[in-house]
Backbone:
């Protein structure tokens, strides 16, 4: 795997983890946060806030959650590998 690809993957995973942590520590209620995410997602994709169905949004959020979980697992594995290297 090339260094550029590793860097890019790390950058994306870090961004996803940062976004997830930011959402977890957001000062607004969960329902307001979800509503704001839905509105912004709709505006970003089509310029109109009523274009995505609830099912489509749930699918997108599920995909994002899965990507974040995969990133966290990958990050944990990398941290464990670094710990093992340091112990040697």
Residues:
């Amino acid at each position: 795997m090339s260094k550029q690809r590793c860097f890019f993957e790390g950058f994306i995973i870090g961004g996803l983890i940062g976004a997830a942590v930011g959402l977890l520590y957001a000062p607004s209620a969960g329902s307001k946060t979800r509503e704001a995410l839905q509105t912004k997602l709709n505006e970003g994709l089509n310029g109109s806030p009523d274009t995505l169905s609830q099912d489509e949004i749930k699918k997108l959020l599920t995909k994002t959650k899965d990507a974040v979980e995969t990133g966290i697992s990958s990050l944990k594995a990398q941290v464990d590998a670094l710990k093992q290297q340091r112990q040697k």
Notes: DSSP finds three helices and no strands in the chain.
